[in-house]
# Entry
Amino acid sequence: MSGFIRNVTMAAAASVLCLSGCSRGETQQAKPVPPDVAFIVIRTASAAQIEDLPGKTEAYAVSDIRPQVSGKLEARLFTEGSTVDAGQPLYQIDRAPYQAAFDGAAAILQNAQDNLALAEGKAKRYAELLNQFAISKQDYDSVQAAYKQAATIVAQQKASLDNAQFNLDNTIIRSPIAGYIGRSFMTPGTLVTAYQTNALATVESLNPIYVDIAVSSNRLTALKQKLATNQRLGNGSAAAHVQLQLDDGTTYPLEGKLPFTNITFDRDAGKVLLRALFPNPKLLLSPGMNVRVTYSDGTNNDTIFAPKSAIAHDAKGEASALIIDRKGIVRRRILKIDNALGDLCLVMDGLTPGDRLVVNAPRSLAPDMPVHPVPAARPYS
# Structure
């Protein structure tokens, strides 16, 4: 009896050991549980098509102030760093020698006019005498020639007086345009020369102001095609209405225009230069500022946006994102993205409606990993 119990006990122990060993083996062979990964479903949206172009501000007009007569600079008649009107006096050149030249030319002209009056009277008398056969034809011709010569001298002296008047008037140097004037490069007492190389000052017309935009010829063609399409649909005009983003990220409050007729070519850079025009009444914009010009060129009903946080960039700047396929496997997609809109990026290629885009991905997540898809708690639109 005791031997039977001992055998049963040993068999039971062996069974327990077998079960324990089998349990450990099954545990070691169990597959790891896929991690939970949040995703959003990509959908299309209706959104304005935004063009974002880099640019630089340039003055609408620039005028270097130079003297048209020579002489001593007597006075500066403006405040540096202020705005001036067209025709406003800026400098005064010593007018004494030019006033004397004018007075002398006026006196010579008066003398010539007096001589012309005498020659004219004599010519009329000789014409009457010739009709009465009281003088010879030779005497008559001589008097007529003297009269014509006196008239020529008067014309010459009038031209001399006009030139003297021009020089006298230009002893006051005026601004040819309205705008902002910077510092003066010459001080009173300086001797200046007519049409000298060095400018006395520079006036820049800043209202309105240009924004120069360099684009490739292919980009220009695409922009023109979009503008033409919008015009046919009644959604646009001959010039696109544009907004300005300043270098600090703020938006310039006034709208500008981008006509595609004001085009120049930079052959060295292989670029086409467009010029947008913006009002600048408060002179918030100054030449040389780096800005971005944005404008909407229609509406696309099949736009795809993706959160910026879901998009990665490699060392070459190539954009990519992770999606979860139907089998729950993570796949990497190469993306072509364009403009940003807040927290979202416009995806031009790489994502299709219905794709499950990974968001808030853990660092350990890698392509070809199986995961447990979980809808993201935060919706994106």
In short: DSSP finds four helices and 20 strands in the chain.
